[in-house]
Hints:
6-stranded mixed β-sheet, Ubiquitin-activating enzyme E1 C-terminal domain-containing protein, UBA_E1_SCCH, Ubiquitin-activating_enz, alpha+beta, 17% strand, Structural Genomics Hypothetical 15.5 Kd Protein In mrcA-pckA Intergenic Region, Chain A, 10 strands, 7 helices, ubiquitin activating enzyme activity
Amino acid sequence: MKAMYMKTLPFLQQIETDENVKKSDQAKLAVSSEEERVAIDLLNKAARIGMATKHRLQMTPVSFEKDNDRNGHVDFITAASNIRAKMYSINTADRLKTKRIAGRIIPAIATATAAVSGLVSVELIKIVGGHSFEAYRNCFFNLAIPVIVFTEPAPVRKTQIRNEISFTIWDRWTIFGREDFTLLNFINAVQERYSIEPTMVVHGVKMLYVPVMPGHVKRLKLTMHKLVKPATERKYIDLTVSFAPESDGDEDLPGPPVRYYFRPEEN
């Protein structure tokens, strides 16, 4: 029993965050013999009266009720929050203050959640009804003041690659390959499907194809499986592609994410 108590001892001590403190200095942080005796007596009493059984130690969810002083809910929140406050040098709160704060948070969460759910549902109805873009609204609200402000959403920004080719942050291009699909096949597939030829292909932080890099031209003959080495259960990868600028001297133009599937499209 004493050994068990000593293992929990660090939780009763002040937490030391200085990495330069020597272990010998930390060993000086000892609990008095009286505190140790009280803790051992409490553990012995819990074991003796049958409180430390497997059934009693099972955790079950309960609904928070701040107005019933006999359930110990507010007492637990007060103790737990003050332990954390002590650890991080935050001002502690007494039981009445904790009860008052908890009483405000619960209805605030419920009302804010209800308001957001209602507003989102209204916008979903507009989508289902096929309403025009001008019918949609952004909303900012603060129920404590209270204030509710509606604004018209701005059109999504488009990035122009060519005069007739553009994309937004919501767009994603898709290419379906096969096991023997080479990097050159991938580049040709993008050009055929989206009418523009990639000049650079990147997977995460790995450059799959950058023409100015030594040896990258030889990679055009390698299969996508060999270049990426996907896991067996992996169905696709997301690639970053860039395209040649319209004018010489300009930087390559970024494109939308390209999702490459390792197998042909399934109908």
